[in-house]
Amino acid sequence: MTSRKNRPLIDLSCTERESNESDNVCFADLLQARLSRRRWLQGGAALAASLGLPAGLSACAERPLQPAGTGSSLLGFEAIPATAADAISVPPGYRTQTLLPWGTPLLPGADDYHADASDSAAQQALQVGSHHDGMHFFPIDVKTGGNSSTEGLLVMNHEYVDPAILHPEGPSGTPRPLAEAEKELAAHGNTIAHIRLNDQGEWQLVKNSRYNRRITGTTAMAIDGPLRGHDAMVTRYSQDGTATRGTLNNCSNGYTPWGTYLTCEENWAGCFVSRGEQLRGQKRYGIPYEDSYYHWHTATPAADHTRRFDATPVAAKAADDYRNEPNTFGWIVEIDPFDPDSTPVKHTALGRFAHEGIIFQPAQEGEPLVAYSGDDSRFEYIYKYVSHESYHASTAGPHLLQHGTLYVAVFHDDGRGEWRALDIDDADFQRRAAQAGVTFGDQGDVLVNTRLAADVAGATKMDRPEWGAVHPHSGEVYFTLTNNSKRTDDQLNAANPRAHNVHGHIIRWRETAGVAGDRFAWDVFWFGGEAGTAQPLFAKESDAASEISSPDGLCFDNDGRLWIETDMSSYGDQIGSRAFGNNGMYCADPHSGEVRRFLSGPMGCELTGIATTPDQSTLFVNIQHPGEGSEPGQFTSHWPDGGSARPRSATVAIRRADGGKVGA
Ligand code: FEO
Ligand code: CA
Q1: Which of 17, 175, 188, 555 makes an SS bond possible with 217, Cβ 3.0 to 4.6 Å?
Q2: pLDDT at 28 (0 to 100)
């Protein structure tokens, strides 16, 4: 019997479990204070003087890089209008190709996708997973210094599943049939697909390639960094605390300078339950007491790989139950796509939270490696990682992600910011922890409780940090703050004049004490909202082509175009997506502030995942959850197969008819 009980109630791609009860200052409060100041501070020099900043810094952090109104040199396409069509729309002169939809046969023995979704769990593990998200294109020759734009490995995340679509008649009630739970686990994880461009300009899967691979919610994983072998990682499965099974809710991504893929675990907490008195590492992450998303822990007949999702202590010691299983999730996982036999590695030095993605500053020979990652929940934080060892191209590898310092961002209301170390040996951190009455046993204890450590460090609560992007020329970091519908009426102000920050904004910062340093200057690049929303940096308002709500995916191409993907929730307490058309992708010129709508997606989807070939002739994006909100047999989208078909997440390759750079 079909039951709606197991059906996720909201878009799991942005299901942030609000759990920050600390007293830390909200970023929205600081933004309001700062922009109120800006109203009477005229010009960069006056502002610089008021902030005590050098004029050069002011020029970067307080003014647009070029005066407003100079027009755009970067955007060479015709903006498209908003639309609610159940289709992909792109500007004139562009063509799109759908590839690798959910269910595509990937590995030997895989069946063709069954339109009634009757594929088994074992088949799903051989087919492309569901709900495509973060993605990267690795040129096939990148390991030998090449930059092929016609052949490579396309690696992507599969963030979650919609049981109403994944199963022929939707999900059964609880207890869950084991076969359904196993199919859902098999549809999570990652796909590595070897693809090649043919003479007709279409991308094709290279069948039987040794590189094609699926990673799922049950694939064996290693744990490294400060938590490797730590007491907090001991489970019945790994009694020495060095391993776990699977990666889940992989949202955005990253890639390393040495040619590996990083997949980031975001809303994993909702896969677990933990009854009774919860450990602080569970409560602060919002692990449910009773109802998990999928009720995998109830799977019948019982199996160890599903029972582990109940973290309630039931044995005398951790080595005999799964109280610590949630501690093995919330990490960034490294996958070597060029070694199909490699074991994915969870890098604990990068912190444990609802990771959206990870972005790097360009690696500099002889300098530390620097990366940023956001914690996508309302009122959570932005983090920075600095490797202990220096980067050298000849020896670069996973060791640079094993030993480093994790910092959290504090945004001061005068436009300055600081990175505060979450380091048990740091005197300032020790002082703040003591003041807060919080004790950490060792650095592993700090990292498994990253959110708590950031609380005591006094981090600034943000409006859901999603993707980031580093400008390829200036090194400025842009970050989407997608929305925060919990912003209340008594927080209204001139800078944020709307009840609830449902449209979000994009901030940016520049490091001011060296790339690896602990200080930065910040500003707001763009406010989301309807046409007419003021954009103070550019002395202009958004128009019909540039109205953005809920900016999420973010990426700079090599020329400095800023690609922005949106994720307006189509139900719940946010906004009706029809006001902006369907979710789409925009392109911005960060110098002029010009923004144009480039792509509109099918009904109910979000745009996510973005990757380019080195020559920028193909832009890959992912269409996630078309038909969100569908009931079994009653689909709100039929993309990409059309007719009455059930919707399928898929990748879209975008190319110009003349073969030129996308966006130019
Ligand atoms: Fe998976 Fe924050 O979106
Ligand atoms: Ca996202």
Answers
A1: 188
A2: 52
The yes-or-no verdict on residue 171 having pLDDT over 90 is: yes
Cβ of residue 248 lying under 6 Å from some atom of ligand 1: no
Average pLDDT over residues 203-223: 98
- Tell how far the Cα of 262 is from the centroid of ligand 1, in angstroms: 15
The percentage of residues in the chain with a pLDDT greater than 70, rounded to a whole number, is 86
How far lies 373's CA from each of 21, 284, 479, 560, 564, in Å?
21, 18, 10, 20, 17
The 10s digit of each residue's pLDDT in 392-420 is 999 999 999 999 999 999 998 888 899 99
Q: Identify the weakest region by mean pLDDT among 34-38, 114-118, 222-226, 432-436.
A: 34-38
- Nearest to residue 128, comparing CAs of 157, 110, 103, 152? 103
Average pLDDT, the chain: 89
Contact (Cβ atoms closer than 8 angstroms) between residue 368 and residue 384: no
- Whether residue 277 has pLDDT greater than 70: yes
pLDDT for residue 216: 98
CA 487 to ligand 2 center in whole angstroms: 20
User: In angstroms, what is the span from residue 504 Cα to ligand 1's centroid?
Assistant: 14
Structural domain boundaries in the chain: 4-90+123-340+367-611+641-656
| Token pair recorded at residue 488 | 């209340």
> Which atom, in ligand 1's list, is nearest to the CA of 252?
1
What share of the chain in percent tops pLDDT 90? 81
CA–CA separation, 368 and 362 (whole Å): 10
Q: What is the secondary structure of 95-154 as a DSSP string?
A: EEEEE--TT-B-STTPPPPPTT----HHHHTTB--SSEEEEEEEETTGGGT---SSEEEE
Is the shortest distance between the CB of 356 and ligand 1 below 6 Å?
yes
Ligand 1: nearest atom to the Cα of 466: 2
- Residue 479 main-chain phi, psi, to 5 deg: -140, 135
- The number of the ligand nearest the C-alpha atom of 265 reads 1
Given a cut of 60, is residue 33 above it in pLDDT? no
Residue with tokens 């059930």: 646
Which positions ≥6 away from 500 have C-beta within 8 Å? 484, 485, 486, 487, 488
266 lines ligand 1 (CB under 6 A): yes
Strand (E) or helix (H) holding 196 = strand 189-197
552 C-alpha to ligand 2 centroid (Å): 5
State the distance from the centre of ligand 1 to the C-alpha of 356, rounded, in angstroms.
6
DSSP calls for 453-499: HHHHHTPPBEE-EEEEEE-TTT--EEEEE--BTT--GGG--SSS-SS
